[in-house]
Amino acid sequence: MHNSQIRPVLDALNDCILACEHCASSCLHEEHLHMMVPCIEADRDCADVCRLTHTLLARGSKHGKHLLRECIEVCEACAAECSKHDHDHCQECAATCRRCAEACRSLAA
Amino acid sequence: MHNSQIRPVLDALNDCILACEHCASSCLHEEHLHMMVPCIEADRDCADVCRLTHTLLARGSKHGKHLLRECIEVCEACAAECSKHDHDHCQECAATCRRCAEACRSLAA
Amino acid sequence: MHNSQIRPVLDALNDCILACEHCASSCLHEEHLHMMVPCIEADRDCADVCRLTHTLLARGSKHGKHLLRECIEVCEACAAECSKHDHDHCQECAATCRRCAEACRSLAA
Amino acid sequence: MHNSQIRPVLDALNDCILACEHCASSCLHEEHLHMMVPCIEADRDCADVCRLTHTLLARGSKHGKHLLRECIEVCEACAAECSKHDHDHCQECAATCRRCAEACRSLAA
């Protein structure tokens, strides 16, 4: 259905959406909540930007490629924030965001 | 991250979003376009309802389960419409929508 | 463009999306943050459910009406939670969610 | 709630989402359907990009401003396409997209 160039990016975006939604929800129930606020904010934005990029690429829109630039930036900002925290969901989200940025970068090239 | 009960539903929803976006875009470039209109409309709605269900389940929201009912209905309506058309993207979309409805039904049970 | 029955509901949904996004962001910067968690969670879900309802009604989808039921429930849950907190953004969000539930209920009738 | 600089942009984005969803749905029921395909595709993308920009600005995200660039481009592309067609919904959509691009441009400045 989607070709071999686009499919891994769609998968990476889906993984990133799942990791960000899960991380935001989990952060809200951590003990040191004030410290987690920038992480929650980054997760929320990253999930939404990845969701639109996923949508546009899935439908073969020419605007999909234009979103990649912004998507890479948001994923990297989220990875940088999440990587500061030791919680499993944060570390996992940071790694997933980095992989997503990498996948988007390959496609943008 | 997401447990073994929820993960297959998230995967089925993602597959369904991809199939519906692709089918809608492909239908718009078929020769007998007037015949494809109900299929395009069903795809558009199904992709959006699956996207919200995916979002709510991914974040562990209690409203995720409430959406399943509507998601099953929209997936079945889309499968019924797509299955009328012989194009590969329609047949593939019909099968994917049916699998998604099935996955949602298991989780709702 | 949209008729006089649907337009006030679209406006109420838009107001509700704006109030919920603003309330969630503001709650994250309140002092007694742990108390605000259920409010943030309700806001997040309410914004997303209203967004899909707005989308489906705007496009004239038959599934728009089906979403109203769930939208009313999510708006009322969000109003109930927000109304427990004295912050302006919470009180404003509670009132906006109640108006949105009311508008959806009129259309569903 | 939202300040006097951001509120008119949120309103313009909401109007644009409504016009694009309505135009896409209406185009699908026009007689010369093949001619309307680029318009339907532009509407679909424009509605989705405006929806994310609306979301990010409503929550006060720093990424909201980054999306403006892309949003302006998508609105202008949609206006250019819609303005080629005489249907009321196309002409109305073209004008609304142009106003939205203008509002986004003021905020980006």
Automatic annotation (TrEMBL), chains A, B, C, D:
Taxonomy of the source species: Bacteria, Pseudomonadati, Bacteroidota, Cytophagia, Cytophagales
InterPro entries in the cross-refs: Csp_YhjQ, YHJQ-like
Listed name of the protein: Four-helix bundle copper-binding protein
Any single Pfam family the record assigns to this protein: Csp
Source superkingdom: Bacteria
